[in-house]
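Q: What does the assembled structure look like for these inputs?
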Amino acid sequence: MIELKRTALNSIHRQLGGRMVDFAGWDMPVQYAGTIKEHLAVRTRAGIFDVSHMGELEVTGPTAADTLQRVTCNDINRLAISQCQYSALTTPKGTFVDDLVIYRMAPDHFFLCVNASNQEKDFAWIREHALDRTEVRFRSNDFSQIAIQGPRALEILAPLTDIDMAGMKYYWFARGKFAGIEAIVSRTGYTGEDGFEVYCDPAHAEMVWGRIMNSGKPFGVEPAGLAARNTLRLEAKMLLYGNDMDETTTVLEADLGWICRFDKGDFIGRDELLKQKDGLKRILVGFEMTGREIARDHYPVEIDGKRVASVTSGSPAPFLKKNIGLTYLPTDRRSVGTEFSVIVREKPVTAKVVPTPFYRRRQPV
Amino acid sequence: MYPEDYLYTKDHEWIAVQDSVGTIGITDYAQHELGDVVYVDLPEVGDTFESGEPFGSVESVKAVSEVFCPISGEVVAVNEKLEENPELINQSPHQDAWMIKVRITNPDDLKELLSSEEYEEYLQEQAGA
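A:
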């Protein structure tokens, strides 16, 4: 048996009664007190997540920006220092090597947060396509990552740092002292809620977690596991690599045209994506089940009795109290209200296309 | 914890037999493993099942779990309360959250099932494994 990798917070999860599972080779808590409770805590108060399994890469050097401009589809020139950008590493076909968040630390210094399961692949891919005088470093082992998400996240974290947390805008970050140690703190997350992510030295992760838990106690902070993280991100229609998109789906098919900046100049996959732009055959849509049945990942999707796709992500939505999901439909079936069938235990059940995100927080930052 | 007058399966169903009708549900251990139950899929009255055949499923936020019929028989009642209140499975797995009642066609099937004592021993073995 292959030994599972452990984050620096592993023993804390066990102390908290976390139910541990193998997630992409990592021993991670899928839930603590219960997925619904954790999900609702994030929507109404705050949740704290260990997301240290996520990968970190660093891209530096005089040509670093040009390298990233070439390997990602979003426009690096639109990224200011101290700003974050959601983007994708694209293949020549315009499909996903991975999706990622890019942090611009300095004009020629970038910090990349990538999916756990793709970190080695991404590292190799960027190196392979890096220009001369770009250095790519694998930094995953040097960082723990803790996410604090929910409407009370700001109040919980502000007392722990001199960083101007209230003044930090959504998808911006700062470097500074947090809980007394050096950290990167960004106003980002994967829940559709206001919140922050803290990157720090794994040697300090337990201390940082403890300080946040203490500060969060009066606000009802709950440790939250991977199951709640998944239902939260799905309600917010944030995509999951490997489920909702991968090397077989293009950025446009995934309905992420907004991160595809054709006007920036050439990038890997641009030609194919341009070709596809006017003749897109399928697109990722959000749907709701009309009855009580729950659509699950990989359940077949049919239109007029013909198999057209699979559910890429499907789950009960604990805050919305609906059963929702994502799937690829032919573009002429994408409009809201269109009905189709999800096959649940061999029976076709009606689903209908709904506007997304399914959930949008009331006061955007 | 596990009623002494019930019989159990290694798939974590229980059955309470009165005359020739068995009332069937999932055990406290099963509901705890599943977490918050949000949907219960039940058969219809008149459906028949062989012992060991799945008759329905219980779904939590995260997972779908099939429920197997401990004995062969014909469904004579289903617990319709579970449609509106699937969380009963978590709250009262051995009482209010019974799932189906089955007219037992082959009473010998019952000999294959575990007593409460045997079931608890089985759970301990599993935990130790």
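Chain B touches chain A at residues 35-36, 38-39, 41, 57, 59-62, 64, 83 (CB under 8 Å).
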